Hints:
The chain is of the alpha+beta class. It has one domain: Alpha-Beta Complex (Aspartate Aminotransferase, domain 1).
Amino acid sequence: MINLIECYQYFLVHSRRKTAGGFYLWATTPITDTSFAQRLYAEQNITVLPGQFLSRSTDEGNPGENKIHMALVAPRDHCLDAANRINILLSTLVGENNVKDSASN
């Protein structure tokens, strides 16, 4: 997940095209999508949508489960700030042993 955020930051920094639209990113969460979204809002004041809210459960499960939907529609500086605050929550989760650090895999 941390590499995904770094890719997100890279996209924002190196994107040269100005568009009137936005970009949406689906990111896998290290804990349940609802818990991650709630903690991200409570601890970092960032709003994302739990993926399971945007998809329908099937016999194979819910394809949006354990993913969040992020809209990259704010100004670049705001998105980069949000990416850094998402990393803070991810570091906290690693410290709480709620998620394996990528180095331990």
